[in-house]
Structures are given as structure tokens and as C-alpha cells.
Amino acid sequence: MDKPFNNRAWFLVLPVFALVAFSAILPLMTVVNYSVQDTFGSNVFFWAGTDWYVQLLNSERFHQALGRQLMFSAIVLIIQIPLGVVIALCMPRKGWGVPVCLVLMALPLLIPWNVVGTIWQVFGRGDIGLLGYTLNRMGFSYNYVNDVGDAWLTIIAMDVWHWTSLVVLLAYAGLRSIPEAYYHAAQIDGASRWSVFRLIQLPKMKHVLIIAVLLRFMDSFMIYTEPFVLTGGGPGNSTTFLSIDLVKLALGQFDLGPAAAMSIVYFLVILLLSWVFYTVMTNDPDRQGGAA
Amino acid sequence: MEGFAQSFAWMAWTWQTATFFATIILILIGMTVWETVSPSGERLGVLRITTTRGDRLFISLLGAAYIHLAWLGLIGPDVPLYWATLISFVYALGVFRWV
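C-alpha cells for the assembled complex are given below, as produced in the milestone run.
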């Protein structure tokens, strides 16, 4: 049997594995340990079994936070992926415009999360914020502090502003990797702009778009700082996403057991959805595998 | 040995969770040995996705986690949880056979 791989190469992964073990695997194991116990501090624990999981899975508060989180991620993906691709398609492919566009696109990504939240908090204020003041002067009753719809719109606009650039840069990198010969061939065949996009650009961007969808999904599903700074989870609990709820539970109420159970469920949801996204986007049913 | 155990005391170990992780590690070692002794390729299963043996283990473990959560959420702790473990085991056998 031909073996194109040398399995000894796996030893090269050992340093990364050691790093991941200390930064991710050991903390995750600790969270599992916490999730089946209760503590009142001083590192003294009492066995609680599956109580926290049962409590969590029947909690209305958890269901609502999960629903909000899923809805937020879905909206963000639906807006950012097509918008990022369209902007990447509009960007110049040569000349001085390329570095200018790349720098402009990279700028929002360089701003820390809490600063983005603060920028939008001021930007949206009805009295001194450019956005809030302008909208109110135009006759819209905009107030992201009291109105649920306005709060959601502001958080989504903020996320789109902050993270669409990432999709743009990834899509642009995918577009730049397409050899000119493909475009020449399409030109000779008299292909329309739509056909060039559908048959050349989109398939060639597939891999970077998979990365973009996964990164944006995981990031939006774990979003914490920006909505926390902007709305603090309000009005009411209308923008309390899972991450905000988790921090309230773990650090606000210091309920480490229930918070650990929630973390595990949160982790499993991210793991499942990421796997589904990855499998659906990379699956090619025409490719027949060998025997098991 | 006691010093080694002490250095991990902050992780709040219980024998139940230690058994759980030991089982996972043993499964991973077992799968590595199995793959070394009898290498497998990819195959197309009933889900119409190509999977390796490792993928099928991942699907089994992830599914087992959800089966246990569903059991706790829908049926509750009054009926023993080992039924969920048994269902997970049957599910894993199905995944390894057909997926």
C-alpha cells in the first residue's frame, strides 16, 4: 500500500499540543470537574452530580439567552458574508488603490473590542452621538438604551462595522489567487459577469469562505465585550447573550457549578455547529472514499 | 506521587470525572493502535459525507454528549443516566457501522 505520509511528522506537533494542553485542555477538564460539584469558596467542593445540568436544561433564562445568541450569529453571518464578498469584488486588483483599500479594511480589525463598544456607545447617543442625534433629528425615535429593536440594530451594525473587513480580506485573498488565465478564458467565451462570479470566483473562494464562516460564527457566538459595553445586556435582558449570562452567573453570582455546566453546554453547541458548517461546506459527495 | 497529585488539586478532581477522562484517553489510545495495526481510508456513509475512523469517533462522542444532555433535559435524573450511556453505545456502533 502506497503511503504518501510519514506519521513521524506528528511529533512536530508535540510543542503545540503541550501548549494547547496547558491553555485549553486542562482548563476544560477543570470546568468539567466544576460542573458536577458545588463550592462555597476556599477550593472546597461538594458532589452535585448532574443537578446543574438538569437545572440549566430546564431553565427559561438559558433557553432565551441561547435563542438570542443563535439569532445574533445567524443575522451577522447573513449580512457579513455576502457583504464581505461584494466589497472584495469591488476592490481594485492593481494600482495604488490596493494598499489604500487594504489599510482601510484592516483598520476596524485593529481596534480593541471594548473601544469599539465605547465608540458605538457614544456614536449612538441621542444627545451627543452623531448617529443617534442625526436619526432623532430626521424624525426617527431612536434610543438604543430603552428600545429593544434599536439596541439590536446598534449591536448588529457595530458587529458588521467591526468584522465585515475580516470577510473582505479573506475573500480578497481568495480572489487574488485566481490566475489571470481564467478571466482571459471567460472573456474569450463571452461569459457574463454573473457567470464569471458563479463559475470561477465563487468556487475559487470556497476555502477562504469556509474559514470566514467558521471564524465569524465562532466569534459572533462568543461575543461578549462589545454588547456588554454598549448595552450591558439590556434593555431588560433583550441583548443578554450566552456569554454575558455566563459571566453574570460565574463572576456576578459566583455560582461556579452552574456556570461550569453552562460552559460545557455552550462549548458543545459551538462544537456541533462548527462541525456541521465545516462538513456541509467541505463535503463533496461525488468524491468516493475507500473501504473502511 | 502525592506531590504530583497535590499540584493538580486545583482542578477539583473527583473519581467520576477522572474515570470519564481516563476512558476518553483509553479510547484515543485504542483508536491509535487500531489505526496503526489496520489503517483505514475515507468512506462514504449513509449521511453522504466522507468520514475516516477518527471522524466517526468524533461523531460518536459528540452524539453521546447530546444524548446525555437530552436525557437529562427531557427525561430527568429520576431514570438512571446509564440508559443514556447504553443508547450512546448503540448509537456509536451504528455510526461506526453505517456513517
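Chain A has one domain: 59-282. Strands of chain A lie at 37-39, 45-47. Further analysis is deferred to the final report.
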